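Thread title: Can someone regenerate the structure for this chain?

I was given the following input by a collaborator and told the matching structure tokens would be attached. They weren't. Posting the sequence so someone can regenerate them.
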Amino acid sequence: MVKEFGGKARFVVENYGESELAKRFGVKRYPAIFVDDVLVATPKDFGFYGKGEGGGEGRYAPFVQNAANHERFRADLKRMVGLILAGRKEEARAQAVSAETKEIAALPPLQVTDLDGKPLSRQDLAGRVVLVEFWATWCPPCRGTLSWLGELKKKHGDRLAVVAVAVESEKSDVRKLVDELKLPFTWTLGTPELARSFGDISAVPTLFLFDREGRTAQVFYGAPPDLHKEAEAKIGTLLD
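Best answer:
Regenerated them for you:
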């Protein structure tokens, strides 16, 4: 799309967690799209199970493998670039979105079943530090985080519970990967209701960490280089 503007626009990528622009706007998740310093799209706009236009969320959801939403995003982005190139930045700002920074305060009242039909509720996890990982079979970084979580689970045993929630993934593909990895998790398929109970899920992997009382200790988005070190340090403090 940049080529359509004849060299008047350029595309810049900034790593998650390292963008000063994102920090200035309070964007704590990814992806976020800016045109100059105008916020065009936030993570909630790409949420896997967004609530739709009526709820003000998920404008382009579901985004993966949805050509219509790809075109909608392209048209919106092109319009904003056009406005700014025409010197109409204030008009672009008026159409900009606001950043979402709210995170859930505690582990939701889970009512899920694993791949074998066994039920799991929040009560089943009481008294333990809990990790809930949202992942997808088509996400390469997710496989690495799952393997790492498997090592953490083996290290800490029953003091740590790990729930792996697959989103936008076929059950057969999930089962195949589960059988291959052989990790001691609770594996379940994500539903719109489950994703929204965690504040909607806009990207994978997303890792939620809860203390023994079920309170949110930290949320980790993506797989940045310091993920393992930071998460393991936080888990250590919760288990001590």
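The longest helix spans residues 67-85.
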